[in-house]
Amino acid sequence: MERTFSISRYPDVKAVTSQLDRLIDQPIYSIRPDALKKYEEDYFEAKCAKSKEMIDVAKEIIPGGVQHNLAFNYPFPLVFTKAEGAYLYDADGNRYYDFLQAGGPTVLGSNPPEVRRKVIELLNDCGPSTGLFHEYEYKLGKKIADSIDSVEMFRMLGSGTEACMAAIRVARLATKKKKIIKMGGAYHGWSDQLAYGIRIPGSKWTQAQGVPRYIFKHTQEFFPNDLKDLERKLRFNQLRGGTAAVLIEPVGPESGTRPVDPDFNKGVEQLCRKYGALLIFDEVVTAFRIGMSGAQGYYGVSPDLTVFGKVVAGGYPGAGGLGGKKEYMKYLSAGIEAGSKHKKALIGGTMAANPLSCVAGYYTLCEIERTNAIPRSGRMADRLTEGLQALIGKYKLPFVAFNQGSICHLETVGTMHFAINWSKPWQIPKVLSETSKRKREMEHMGAAYMAEGIVTLAGSRLYTSGAYTEEMIDDVLVRFDRIFSHVALLEG
Mind giving me the DSSP string for 456-479? Predict the structure, then answer.
């Protein structure tokens, strides 16, 4: 049978979780201070001078010097000027393997010429936006609906954050209930009500500086992969007005940093049906990366609403959308409809569904399907993960490497495997202190990766694409071998 999903074999969730438990119980292993200093001097200072100069100037205008959290890297952010296939190039001409993949959307690889040509044609004919309807709004929506069974209708939005906001508004209108339960540790954008329980399960409102605490009155979190915890909260809510929706990342929080059991999603679906809550899948990363039918196709689940982002605009801006069943998507109808008897969610965005994003998204999805980029990227990730596991064994390190298809995880310190238990408040200061120390070492490891020509997401996640070859992956593993040879137990 031809492989259609990027996942060829499901990770042993119990074994991975056990390895991560051991990792955070152990002292920190990281790049040796002398090796880090050598990378700083021999690479960053000597070979990235233009980047350093530009970032120093940018700091005068841009807070922190960069516009996006993922762009900040130790010891200073690098300035990238070219993206092509599996490679990135910085302002000094240095070449890197791209495993950040713009945060996940570039399943084809960066800047594919087949898509670029169509975008240029559109710019020549129409320009990026008119504020009026364009044929590719329909073509993109139809392509998504044809690919994913649960998506009967689709509405384009400006970002994944906006799509998550829209999803919970629709759920509240459709169910006439208020409470939203999200998976602890998952990131569903930075809107006020969903900036809750992010990064670390149990963190509640602690990561949401600038958001008044009362905003979270109707937002709750449950522990990842724990159906009993979810049902306890659904049952509790049933006596207090009910639950509008359960919102999850299907592979686990933070793109599967805490992996979930293969039958977990079906269990969540059954609980949603039992307690009358809508099931919302956040497939910002997984849609068209796990499979053309999304993670929901892989798990055999039919969510009521699906959040899209990133890839639906092919890596171009304006990348967000909400799809789902007609009975719920009707709450997103635009314009004035005669005889409409239902209320409409307050949704807007002048640049949403702009022609540039829609044409890029449509041809990206067509090319992903035509070139079998999804299973290819999965095979490359399998090869990368197996190689990393062999290197971890070679150097007898406590690190953990695993993958869900083309989403690879390399946990060296386990920062996001910690959890906050509010029933034991005396433990919280230690957890916050430990995660802070470990986050710093993630940055140091990330610097070593960068100096060896490997761009990762926060030093702990690597996305593969259809642009990778076996030879490239093998070269990447040679570089990881060099890095791991400089890793040691940190004192203190």
Answer: -BTTTEEE--TT--HHHHHHHHHH
